[in-house]
Amino acid sequence: MVKILHRIRYPPFESTKLDASKIPVVEYEFDIDGPVFPPFQLGNENSWLVERIIDGDFEVDTKYHGKTPQIIEKQRTGWYMIPHPIHAKARKAISITVVILLSCLFYLFTTPLQTSLGIPTFGTGKIRLGLLDYPVLVVIVVPLMIAPIILRVGANLRDLRRQKFFLKNSPPRPNITIDSTTSGDDLCGEITIENPLEEWKSMFISWRVGILPPARHKVFSALGLNPDGQPPPGLTTQLPHHWEEGLDDGTGMGEDAPMERHDAPGGVFLRPMRIMSISESVEINIDGGRFKLKKPKGNWPGTVYGGLVRVHWEMIVNIQRDKGGPLLWVEPLVVDHQKTSTINQDLQIFDGRSESDTI
User: pLDDT by residue (tens digit) across 86-136?
Assistant: First the structure.
């Protein structure tokens, strides 16, 4: 029997606003009878961490043996779309508007002091709207606050129309053949798309590796916490109408994607992995052909699917269209492990929103 310890400190949603050292490392120990794939360490103790520790001597097995988790089947396989780019722009505009609003409030608060010091002021006069009087600055600030919200509502309505058309006219599955691949090697294979649509202009392919969120109930179990009780630091309260056991950590629901149709299992927008490395994108003929992709940056282990630690590889087929935005095909990959341990302390953290520019 070989003792194995999995340790993970996964970046929660909005990880840029949190201190990694304040979030506990989740550990899970188990035994395996027979060959195992080598240990690895991604990240470090002072930041985000994904680690596999093996106690004692062991026989190496470089291939993954196990089932594909439902998070792959539901959220990372098949055709996907990218949300309207106005979502990302409106979100940035909201942040700027909040700064302007707070600045105006501070300015109005200090107006009496400025007047007593003989400093000229502006925009502090009153304007009557209905039965109430408001500062003149309201005429400037309120439209700035409402505009991003209106833009996002309009983008959501447009996305819903795009999703409806997409679900009724989903393209056929491309034929993809992948050669046996080991982490650290290039990816070789062939793709064929029968009868590509006239609106398809070009096609780019890439592949990437990343860490999927741990299953929320596994995190609570490993920490010895009640799933219905207070969540640990980094996790939010469970959203009962959106979160599904075993799917992910449940922290991004309602924020990781814009408005989606509920009749599409897993949604139609692809969520980026929060820990990820992406290869260069290569253009091929619109009807397919043979390809060779260089490996993503950094040292990574092969495929691992567990309750806490999930190292996932996938190929992205990005089809540029005349209208409707890019169309993505996501092909999960099973990548073999190297025979030696893997160490990669330089992890890149990404925004988990599907509207980000990391796809």
Answer: 888 888 888 888 888 888 888 888 888 888 888 887 777 777 777 777 777
Largest CA distance in the chain: 83
Tokens in use for 319?
Answer: 């089809």
Q: Is 325 left (phi over 0), alpha (psi -120 to 50) or beta?
A: left
- Whether residue 291 has pLDDT greater than 70: yes
What is the DSSP pairing of strand 126-129 with strand 132-135? antiparallel
Kindly state the average pLDDT of the residues 150-169.
89
Which residue is listed with tokens 């106690």? 55
Average pLDDT, the chain: 87
Q: Residue 291: phi, psi to the nearest 5?
A: -140, 160
Beta bridge partners of residue 349, listed in sequence order: 275
The whole-angstrom separation of Cα 306 and Cα 71 is 11
> Shortest CA distance to 84 belongs to which of 228, 292, 268, 279?
268
Joined together, the tokens standing for residue 349 give 């953290």
Report the half-sphere exposure of 28 (CA within 13 A, side-chain side): 19
Classify residue 247 by its DSSP letter: T
Q: What is the 3 state secondary structure string of 132-193?
A: EEEECCHHHHHHHHHHHHHHHHHHHHHHHHHHHHHHHCCCCCCEEEECCCECCCCEEEEEEC
Give yes or no for a contact between 284 and 203, defined as CB atoms under 8 angstroms apart: yes
**Angle value at C-alpha 39, between 22 and 54, nearest 5 degrees:** 90
Least confident residue range of 97-106, 188-197, 260-269: 260-269
Backbone phi, psi, residue 261, to 5°: -75, 140
Strand partners, 30: 4
Q: How far apart are CA 114 and CA 106, in angstroms?
A: 12
pTM of the model: 0.87
Nearby residues of 304 by Cβ (< 8 Å), 6 or more positions away: 37, 52, 64, 310, 311
